[in-house]
Write a structure and sequence with these properties.
alpha+beta, 21% strand, rod-shaped, 3 helices
């Protein structure tokens, strides 16, 4: 299915997004973006460790 670029932009969608398609009546569909668990969790630990801590720890592992 090909969707107009302007419609995608207005909906905050881009090529490659996975969509849930629901038929709601004759000639009518509702498209909804599916949740991406990786995208949802990305960055959830930002700020958990002090700046430079993980780099220091990785250096210790490599030593």
């Amino acid at each position: 299915m090909t969707l107009p670029v302007e419609a995608l932009r207005k909906a905050g969608l881009r090529a490659g997004n996975e969509l849930l398609v629901e038929g709601i009546g004759p000639g009518k569909l509702v498209l909804s973006r599916t949740d991406d668990p990786v995208e949802k969790l990305a960055g959830m630990f930002t700020g958990m460790y002090p700046k430079g801590y993980l780099k220091k720890l990785r250096r210790e592992w490599r030593a």
